[in-house]
Structure formats: structure tokens, C-alpha cells
Specification:
alpha/beta; Nitrilase/N-carbamoyl-D-aminoacid amidohydrolase; six-stranded mixed beta sheet; 7 helices; globular; C-N_Hydrolase; UPF0012_CS; hydrolase; hydrolase activity; C-N_Hydrolase_sf
């Protein structure tokens, strides 16, 4: 299986429409890949909080339209990263006043939207994304016939291992994590990606952004990790397309060879004080 992670740069001098068209061109250049992945909130920048509302789209908005066509034109499975999604308004609220979500879109090679994942864990500690966007509540997997089952997560989700256990229980073999991870915590990015791969005996495809989001330098360093925690490929800090070939069958082989997941003990009581 061949995967291409597009570590696109967010340039504050470039409009959302211009970046969207550039992303389309980058996707189309990946003909021959099985799966193409874009990062989190690449339309606005993950830290450009003031842009979330003005640039929010309906699920089937301009990014959906552009990415669906790019997927079908190129014949690839496309994880189009995430967008600020404008949800449906509550009863009585005016159009355009619906809640915001950080929503990932996945398209089939025919351009059909096969999955949308609303980010569950929102970053910000009572500010930023954590207060501006609603939380998703669904675990989402996508079956690529004849290849692998994708488990979807986004950026800050990477810090919460129980989410990934749930994805594995739902059949995930390849964990896809678009992100807008800051440079100052890059060591955590690499460490956590490897940890999620090892503990779940799954491939991890972690796609970050380059550039600067609202004054926050991005880590870049997208990476692909195998079920043993080995980094198969890693990007630098700048804009780059990271392409790697891997064997999805290694997941089943690893889980059979070293069957740690069978020894999980669930439902433990809280420890007693002594």
C-alpha cells in the first residue's frame, strides 16, 4: 500500500480559496497512491481561532466539492484533513449560527464522501478551539476494501489512548491522524505517535502542517510508524509530501506473533487505599 502525506504550509498571505486550489493540485500529483492525507484545519490554520467562524463551511461546502473531485480525478482514497464545519442551527436559530466542529472528511476513489469525523478532544484548556467548537461523540472507521481499515483521530486526540483502543476494537488497523501540532511540543508528537502504534499494534499515519498558524510555528515532521513502533518515514519542518509504501498485512502478523491485545483486562475496580 502506498500512502502520501501532504504536509502543506499555511501561509498567512495566502487566501483560503488559493490554498484550497493549491491543495487540489498537490492531491492530483499523487496519482498512483492508494491513500492521500492532508493535515488538520489546513484551510485556516489550527491556531487561527478568529478565522474559524468566518471561514466555516457546511459539510458539503467548497472544500468538500474540491476534494471530492480531486479524489475522483486522481483515483485515490483521500483523507482531506479537517475543516471548520458549520453544523445545522438549533431550532429557531438563524442560518449561519449553527455550532462549529473540527471535522475530517474522507473520500473514496469515486469522489463519494464515505466518512466525516468530528474531533472529540478539543485543544485549548477553556479557550480557543475548546470553547469555539463543539465536540464530536462518534468513533469513526473506514474500510478500504482489500487493503486496511482506517481509524480516524485528529491532533490533540493523540494524547488520549482510550480513543485509539476504541478504534482498534472497531477494527482499525491503520490510524490516521491529521494535525496542526506546534513546534514547541514536537518531541511529544513523535513519542505519542510511536506509542499509539506500539500499544495498538497498528500503523500510524500522522500528517502535520508546515508554516506558522497565527504566530504559532508548526512542528511539521509528519511520520509513518509501523506496528512495532519503527518510524518508516519522517518529513522535515517545511512543506513536503511524504510518501511511503507499507504492507497492511503486517498488522495481523504482529498481533499474531505478539498477541498482547488478547491479555487486556477491562473493567478493573478502582484501586483501594491501603
Amino acid at each position: 500500500m502506498r500512502a502520501s502525506l501532504i504536509q502543506i504550509a499555511v501561509d498567512e498571505g495566502e487566501s483560503v480559496a488559493e490554498r484550497r486550489q493549491r491543495a487540489v493540485s498537490l492531491v492530483r500529483e499523487q496519482a498512483g497512491a492508494d491513500l492521500v492525507v492532508l493535515p488538520e484545519l489546513w484551510t485556516t490554520g489550527a491556531f487561527a481561532y478568529e478565522e474559524f467562524g468566518p471561514e466555516a463551511e457546511l459539510l458539503e461546502g467548497p472544500t468538500h466539492e474540491a476534494m471530492a473531485k480531486a479524489a475522483s480525478d486522481t483515483g485515490v482514497w483521500l483523507h482531506a484533513g479537517s475543516i471548520p464545519e458549520r453544523g445545522e442551527p438549533d431550532g429557531g436559530s438563524p442560518a449561519g449560527d449553527g455550532p462549529l466542529y473540527n471535522t475530517s472528511l474522507v473520500f473514496s476513489p469515486t469522489g463519494d464522501l464515505v466518512a466525516a469525523y468530528r474531533k472529540i478532544h478539543r485543544f485549548g484548556f477553556d479557550k480557543g478551539e475548546a470553547v469555539l467548537m463543539g465536540a464530536g461523540d462518534d468513533l469513526v472507521t473506514v474500510r478500504m476494501p482489500g487493503a486496511t481499515t482506517l481509524g480516524l483521530a485528529t491532533c490533540y486526540d493523540l494524547r488520549f489512548p482510550e480513543l485509539f483502543r476504541g478504534l482498534v476494537d472497531a477494527g482499525a488497523e491503520t490510524l490516521v491522524i491529521p494535525a496542526g501540532w506546534p513546534e514547541r511540543r514536537r518531541s511529544h508528537w513523535t513519542l505519542l505517535a510511536q506509542a499509539r502504534a506500539v500499544e495498538n499494534q497498528a500503523f500510524v499515519l500522522a500528517c502535520g502542517t508546515a508554516g506558522t498558524h497565527a504566530g504559532v510555528p508548526q512542528a511539521g515532521h509528519s511520520l509513518v510508524v509501523d506496528p512495532w513502533g519503527e518510524v518508516l518515514a519522517e518529513a522535515g519542518r517545511g512543506e513536503e509530501v511524504l510518501t511511503v509504501e507499507f504492507d497492511p498485512g503486517k498488522v495481523a502478523a504482529t498481533r499474531e506473533q505478539f498477541p498482547v491485545l488478547k491479555d487486556r483486562v477491562l473493567g478493573l475496580d478502582r484501586p483501594r487505599r491501603r
